[in-house]
C-alpha cells in the first residue's frame, strides 16, 4: 500500500503541549516531525557517545605512554618475558562474535521480537563471561606481576582497562535483558538498548586497540 504525502497546513503542524500556534522554523517552514519506522536518536545514545569520546582520550593517553616507554627502553619486552598469542587470539575471536550477537539483539527488538532479543543478549553475556575468563588467564599465565617491571605494569593496565569496561558492559546488557523480558522496547522505543549496544561495541574496540598495542 503506497503512502501519500500530506502537505503541511496549519491544521497538521505540530502544536506545543501548552497550546497556541503551530511550531514552525524561522523560514516559515513546518517543524519536521519523526519519520515513521525511523526513530530519532535519543538522549541516552547521545550521552553514551559523549562518554565514549571522553573515555577514548584516556585510552589514547595510555597507549601514548606505552609507546613512549617502549621507545626509551633498550629491550622491549624485557629479557625473559614471553607472552603467547593464543589467549589474545581467542579473546579477539570471541569479541568479534559478541559484536554480532549484541547487534542481533537490537535488530530483534526493533522488530518487536522479544524472544530473539533476549536470546541475543544472553549469548552476548556468555561471550563476555568467556572473554573475562580468558583475560584472567592472561594475568595468571603471564609469568610476571604488576610490579616486576614497567612492561608488566603497562601489560596489566591495558588488559585491566579493557576488563573493567567489559564487566561494566556485561552489567548493562544484563539489565537490558531483564527490560526486554519486561517488554520495555519496541520498534519506536529502544534508545536505551541501542545505547547499551554502542557501549558494548566500544568495549570491543578497546580490546582491538589493546591487542594491537601489546601483541602486534
Can I get a quick summary?
The chain is mainly alpha-helical and 216 residues long.
Descriptive account of the structure:
About 3% of the residues have low confidence. This protein is mainly α. The chain is built from five helices and no strands. α1 packs parallel to α5, α3 runs antiparallel to α4 and α4 packs antiparallel against α5.
Radius of gyration: 23 Å
Largest sheet: none
What is the overall pLDDT average? 84
Coarse structural class: mainly alpha
From the N-terminal CA to the C-terminal CA, the straight-line distance is 54 Å
Compute the number of strand runs.
0
Query: H/E series, N to C?
Result: HHHHH
Bulk shape: elongated
User: Uncertain runs with pLDDT below 50, 5 residues or more?
Assistant: 34-39
